[in-house]
Amino acid sequence: MKKFFRISVLNAIIILICPFVKVMGQTHEGMVMYTPDFRFKDGIYVNFDQVKANSPIPKAKLLTSTDYNDKEFFKNILKSGKIYYYDAMGIRQEILTSTIWGYARNGVLYVQIQENYNRITFIGSICHFVADVTTVDSRYSSPYGYGGYYDPYSYPYSYGNYYNPYGSYYSPYGRNNSTRNELKQYLIDFESGKILEFNLESTELLLMKDNKLYEEYIQLPRKKKRDLMFVYIRKFNEDNPLYIPVNQ
Fold first, then answer.
1. What are the backbone angles phi and psi of residue 120, rounded to the nearest 5°?
2. How many CA atoms lie within 13 A of 92 on its CB side?
3. Strand runs (DSSP E) across the chain, as ranges?
């Protein structure tokens, strides 16, 4: 009797557990864990949802006179300002190239930043890449020759502002805007698609999704945290692997 009772209880436990095991097994059904050997489908990714689904607009649906086998295919088609393609219903569509997320060529993702396309060299649940961006350097210049630039805090009385009898203030110091190119590092949260600058604040924000790793990281001295930002992003990806659909 006791033996029968133990068997019955065991069977009941198995019956209760099996549905959960099945659900867990289906979590990544039709998906593969990302490895450096993984290749994304070539094509135009209009938005990040298409990246997550590994489902771009393929070359065959793009309307262009550019040879599909041309190694500069995507570069050529994207410089026209618009792309034309057939959607799933076979209807002709058009979209501004400035609004698309990016593309994949030879299985490698390229993301658009300031209408330039940058290769994503490190992919995982948190991605990392470097982009050549244009920044604006704004300075105040003085028409009176005070060294060429105006520091509003160097004048303790007027701070460069002169009273206008008509009821407003004006400054005789013009703003001198200059642009320069620089390399900047970025992160992509693969869950939300958000692109963040690679800095301490963004790293902490993304690591919060892994409580254990986050608690370990925030205990470090600030300098150590800066030095180990990428190390902890790699740890996060190892502990939280990325799964990608393998749509055929």
1. -90, 110
2. 5
3. 31-33, 43-45, 82-86, 92-96, 102-105, 108-113, 116-119, 126-141, 162-164, 168-170, 174-189, 195-197, 243-245
Residue type, 233: I
Q: Which residue has the tokens 């919060």?
A: 208
Containing 11, the helix (H) or strand (E) segment is: helix 2-26
pLDDT digits (tens, 9 = 90+) for 13-41: 444 444 433 333 335 778 999 999 999 99
- pLDDT over 80 at 12, yes or no: no
Question: Can you spell out the DSSP letters for 142-154?
Answer: -TT-STTSB-GGG
Report pLDDT digits (tens) over 125-166.
Answer: 999 999 999 887 765 444 444 344 333 333 333 333 333 433
On whether the pTM is more than 0.85, the answer is no
**Boundaries of every domain in the chain:** 31-130+186-245
Q: Going by DSSP bridges, is the β-strand pair 162-164/126-141 parallel, antiparallel, or unpaired?
A: unpaired
Distance, in Å, from the CA atom of 103 to the CA atom of 118, rounded to the nearest integer, reads: 10
Distance separating alpha carbons of residues 70 and 66, to the nearest angstrom? 7
- The dihedral built from the CA positions of residue 226, 230, 236 and 242, taken in this order, carries a sign that is positive
